[in-house]
Write a structure and sequence with these properties.
Elements lengths: L8 E6 L3 E6 L12 E6 L3 E11 L2 E6 L7 H14 L7
Antiparallel strand pairs: 1-2, 2-5, 3-4, 4-5
Length: 91
């Protein structure tokens, strides 16, 4: 854990609804279901999330978007997801 209380991790699975995050360190206490976490994803920015379940070595979170205020953030998320989507799965 960094001095600022930040924890470094990696997104291992992501959709428009949420993400699975693998943490680079083992925490003494895992975030409780319902905990709010500010998640910074490169190329997208800061996203407010809620923990939906613990994972081995990480957590699964749902994104908490406000469509009226987060349109640019949502557009960045869609762009990143489309870049990583398998070609065969695209319509």
């Amino acid at each position: 854990m960094l001095e600022s209380g930040e924890v470094v991790g990696a997104v291992v699975n992501m959709s428009v609804a949420g993400a699975a995050i693998h943490l680079d360190i083992e925490l003494d206490i895992n975030p409780e279901v319902g905990s709010i976490i500010e998640l910074h994803i490169k190329r997208i920015g800061m996203i407010r999330t809620r923990v939906v379940r613990p994972l081995i070595g990480g957590v699964a979170v749902e994104f908490l978007f406000n469509p009226a205020h987060d349109r640019a953030l949502i557009a960045k998320l869609w762009k990143v997801l489309n870049e990583y989507a398998p070609s065969a799965g695209r319509l």
